[in-house]
Amino acid sequence: MDFRSSDTITGPRSEDVLPTTATAAVKVVIVGGFGVGKTTMVGSVSEIRPLTTEETMTQAGVGVDDNAGVETKTATTVAMDFGRISLSEELVLYLFGTPGQERFWFLWNGLFEGALGAVVLIDTRRLEVSFDVIGRLEERGVPFVVAVNTFPNAPHHPVEALRRALDLPDEVPMIDCDARLRTSSRDVLMTLMRYLHSLAVPLA
């Protein structure tokens, strides 16, 4: 290839470069049913421009994907979302958002490889889409926290009622969030980190 003096070779944007102070990196997976806000959370909290694999929904998904309750959704993640956030000068989280439709769940195997923990996003209007997701995490032995995403007109249920509906153990943290807000999404990730730390540190 003939590179002329006018050709420019560019690298990553300055804001995308990993901080030199970073000494530890953790892989976290954002999971949930179709349309619960996974792409939104990764995009709102990521300090770099997130990588998304959203594609326009077509007739091919009719009768295959369950879009009850999110009929106005026009795009969907078909592989993964990726972002990064520094929780401190030393600790960096790499965020991987999973596709929600069951026909893409075969991709979870690769996305979960090396993951330290997960965030399960739920929509109280459609709790049933979270049952299989939580079951898969429990089968894999992946520690997780549950984040109740805020949607307009979504019913509010007491925490204990949600725990019973999702069959969650008392020790699994549950937190309200608004996936559109960076501070709220960051609080969810901090909750996950504290939970993972509690599991790693033996009780005195």
UniProtKB/TrEMBL annotation:
Source organism superkingdom: Bacteria
Molecular function GO terms recorded: ATP binding; GTP binding; hydrolase activity
SUPFAM superfamilies the UniProt entry points to: P-loop containing nucleoside triphosphate hydrolases (SSF52540)
Coiled-coil region: none
Keywords, alphabetical: ATP-binding, GTP-binding, Hydrolase, Nucleotide-binding
Family stated for the protein in its record: Belongs to the GPN-loop GTPase family.
Name of the protein this chain belongs to: ATP-binding protein
